[in-house]
Amino acid sequence: MWTVIYIAPTPKIAERIREKLTEEGFLVQVRAINMTKNQFEIVVPEGEVEEVQDVLNSILHRP
Questions:
Q1: How far is the CA of 17 from the CAs of 12, 63, in angstroms?
Q2: Is the whole model's pTM more than 0.90, yes or no?
Q3: pLDDT tens by residue, 33-46
Q4: Over the chain, what is the mean pLDDT?
Q5: For 3-29, how does the pLDDT look when each residue is reduced to its tens digit (9 = 90+)?
Q6: Which domains does the chain have, with CATH numbers?
C-alpha cells in the first residue's frame, strides 16, 4: 500500500522531491490532488515511510 508523506504546493517542488528520493533508491509516486490549488501528494510504499521521512527532512531543510 502507498502512503502519503508530503503534500507539495507546486509541481516543481513535487518533482524535486521525487527526484531526490528516487536518487536515494526509494520508490516514489507523485499524484495531483487539487489542480486548482496545484497540490501534489508524494507517496511511497508504507514499508519505507520511516526511512523516507529522514531523507525528506534533509531535502526540505536544505537551503
A1: 9, 14
A2: no
A3: 977 788 999 999 99
A4: 93
A5: 999 999 999 999 999 999 999 999 999
A6: 2-60 (3.30.70.1530)
From residue 60, alpha-carbon distances to 35, 39, 47 in Å are: 22, 16, 21
User: What is the per-residue burial (b if ≥16 Cβ within 10 Å, else e) of 44-61?
Assistant: beeebeeebeebbeebee
Between the CA atoms of 26, 31, 32 and 34, what dihedral angle is there, to the nearest 10 degrees? -100
Q: How far apart are CA 51 and CA 28, in angstroms?
A: 13
